[in-house]
Specification:
It contains 7 helices and 42 strands. By secondary structure, the chain is mainly β. Helix 3 runs antiparallel to helix 4.
Length: about 850
Amino acid sequence: MNASTGHAASRVTRNRKGAFIMRLLTTSALIGLSSLSQANAQTSPSQSASQTSTRAFHIPAQSLSSALNAFGRQSGLQVTLAAATSRGVTSHAVDGQFTPQQALARMLEGTGIPFRINADRTAVIGQAAATAPTGGASVPGAIALDTIDVQGSADGTSGYVATRSSAGTKTDTPLIETPQSVSVVTRKQIEDQAAQSVREALRYTPGVVSEYRGAGGTRYDTIIYRGMGGGVNYDYSYLDGLRLLGVDYAVPQIDIYNLDRVEVLRGPSSVLYGQGTPGGLVNLVSKLPTEESLHEVQLQAGNRGHVQTGFDFGGPLDPDGTLLYRLTGAAHRTDSQVDNQKEERISIAPAFTWKPDADTSLTILGKYQNDPEGGYFGFLPAVGTLQSLPNGGHISRSFFDGSPNFDEFKRTEASIGYQFQHRFDDIWSVESKLRYMHTDLNYKSVYTTGIDTSDPDNPLLKRGVLWNNSHFDAVSADNHAQADFSTGPLTHKFLFGFDYQWLGVNEVQGQGTAPSLSIYNPDYSVAIPTPATTLSSRQRINQLGLYAQDQIKIDKLTLLGGIREDWAQNNQHNRLTSTETDQGDHAFTWRVGAVYEFDSGVAPYVSYSTSFQPAIGTDASGTAFKPTTGQQYEAGIKYQPPGHDSFITAAVYQLTQQNVLVTDPDNTSYSIQTGEIRSRGVELEGHANITDNLELIASYAYMDNINTRSTTAQGYHPTYVPDQTAGLWANYTFHDGAAAGLSIGGGIRYNGRSYANADNSIEVPDFTLFDAAVRYDFGEKNPRLKGLSLAVNATNLFDKEYVSACATATKCFYGLGRTVFGTLTYRW
């Protein structure tokens, strides 16, 4: 068992923090200062290497606005031009290896339109560039015009549409050139939908099931990717490209208010990230220091006693903008849908960036979060939720199966780390990241283990009891170098590096049985005896990975290949038996892929990738388990129409996982590694800013998951996994007239049928939910109220009662009922 199915066997801790944190922070600072000193000695501060380095441009002759969109994507620059500059202007074709300066000059040749490229990675086109010391010459008689933004931001994000992400390649690569399914949930989508957690932010993302625990499990962001993974122990979440390490119930969670975006990689990603479920992973991107001043305060209130406040400040600390900061914080409390349960949290995230020149930056990021209450984490049996009780009734979705006087969840997490980047010249650049995190957890729970219906008039929930105290220290680091060069007609983006993960855990746990609870007449005053200690351990986990990757561009064709070797070590000391076990694994993984970009914006791709995931434990003979392995074939089409702010993808895949643990038929107390799961599916996703008023998100996924080898469930579908999911969200904003400043949004979410038990004899019905939102910007009508807005969001608008999923016939989860939030935000 593990925490994904409720209550599991675990390992525990105690840890040391202060001295280690100080040593780590001091070491990190010295590394960063040493690197910066060397970098400054080798690079001229007067010119950015990113502006002088050549790269491949493939931009056909077309309308200037469309060409500049393509230029922004391929150069990584933010492009701004005068509002009417591009009208009736056709660009020249640009095809080959050029610096951004050379590419723009060729594109604008003969048009008389001036331009300049600034040190802050922005390209200014039109009269605003006419007096620039670099770029095109001034045009006599040019007329000053208002500017419009061609590309929403330097990272390729505009509203709901993201066109770039480093998550799929660890390089600055457009999504259309990445032969893998990658989804990005932007900050605007998070805010418009009032998502309260990462799992809520993924509601409209295809191929992932993020809310299978329904109204419960909000303390963890457990996610199923393409039917694989799920559960705390098997969730592979990353923060800023570094894995969020945890064990058993001591798993960190990042407050979504502190995040800028959420990125999802679907399919095996071990080549870049090491061990993980073959279904995929999620990468959380922190809010980073900003070059422009930023100030935001927010108040939020809603049903179930929900109250929240947040603040987000950022900007330069000196006139030259070499020192930047960001300070984000949030606090909330809310009652759970389930009686006697609530959530409370306070978090703060400071960050500072030093940018001595355009090619060098060092960012220090810190986070502190305290969760004195973690909400509901239980479940109920299929009888009483999916099926009727003996007398025909059902268990209420607000029913609490635990003990108000015993249950407890207290978690504290703190982290400090750095991100360092430097470009040496036209070819070489380096990036280094490191994060240290400490987490403390105190957890006590009474939970359902079954149901007794022998007395139809008084059905009873059978219950167990568990307590867990865990403390861990974790270090995640990633260092890589990148070389951009050409060999004849081939353009290379070559990456090589290593990453390291270390986790030290001290854990103590007790587990036993608890008195049964009457469903019709629950008596919560019954004392719950604390079980004796059943586990006391110290665990040390290490993983080192070496990887290399090459992205080769030949005209419009991009080829990608990567290899990796990992070494993992797990040492566990059992204090109860004074025994020690060591388990070592190593694995080789690889991937290949290809993308071809047509001038129309259509880009078909194919890929093959592999993964590995350590399996902890031994079989009945004492032989240590081998890592589970995964392989995936994927093909798809990405479409980014020129001149339109949209991104559409379609993918088909076959994913197989081997060495899956299944019950040993000769000794049912143990497992053997003969299991295999196959997943096949289709995914469709579209993000589009249709007009200046209308924004749209659409998604669909079909998943066919089968246990192809199993001692107990061969030929059957795994539980949790719906056969289909779909979502549609639209937001319309009025910019003119009496309704100027008003935005109206709404969405539909569909979740197909799934199964509640291994032989698929109990089915979880499909369900459809509706969401709605309305927002008003007071500054549109009254300039004195600029920056003030009010939003009201409702999820599950019609308060549908449903079961979101079941892990087994005794572990089913009610979905979240109607939730309404009002959010008042002031920005200046």
